Amino acid sequence: MRLATLERLDPRKVWNGEAKEFTPWLRDNISILSEAVGLDLEVIESEGAVGDFKVDIVAKDLGSGRTVVIENILGPTDHEHLGKLLTYAAGRNARAAILIAIDFRDEHANTLEWLNEISKGDPLFFGVKVEVLRIENSPPAPDFQVVVEPKEWNADVTPDLSPKQKAYQEFFTSLVQKVRERRPGFTSATKGLPQNWFSFPAGRAGFSYSVSFAKQSRMRVELYIDVGDAPKNKSAFDRLRSQREAIENEIGRKLEWERLEERRACRIAAYFEPIAIDSPPDDLQNAMEWAIETLIQFDRVFRGRIAELPLDGERDSAT
Known about the structure:
By secondary structure, this protein is an alpha+beta fold. It contains nine helices and twelve strands.
């Protein structure tokens, strides 16, 4: 058997500068970083203002709703960029911060580890090393290696939680793992969180799927619409609602079309009841199976329609 040779390239020769090439590339390929750190990152903006400074990328972790700031260096870590990361995290009230570099000095890796220890998981700090690999004459391929992450990040359950928080985290960790098994590539998340909901990407900024324990002992699977502008949200909702019959026929069930007039966002939802996090294990397992199947159905039916929705410049609802 003939084996090829793996070659490591200098990232500074692949991307010509951080701001000019690497940050735009990372913005457009955020899913690669998402998979490395185990978050479903959705870019909110790049080169966003923080006082007189500009943060490379501001993102949102869909699973938790956390704001995430990302600072990158096409070089080894230094005091300047570490300081920028902390400044941007504070300025944007971020609950997670990611420092990307081609190499990590021990002092800077230790600082991120210390921040994770004292923050106890809120906010989260990640250090990620970027490499570029090539096999013989193949195109270069990026490779992100996590060198610093919260100590409990890979644990199924975070310590020091209330019994209810632990139950939520166990439920959604199992749900996320099963979704990854049944639909590889659907989510980059690897664990649930100690909260009563978890969100997944729908393929377009401002749109997400969510599974939650709702009020009145119900479980909800929803398409949540919030592009940051109420008229655009209502317009997108109305355009989808105009296809209600076809959508419900494809999904195979009636849906709740909740325009949420008093709020900026809108949702389209299906409900399972009765169920609560303290329900018997067999009931929770049945609810989980229902949620996974409904989530997959939602994605099959809505993803293409979401991609085709016109939003820019619209201010009146479609009928």
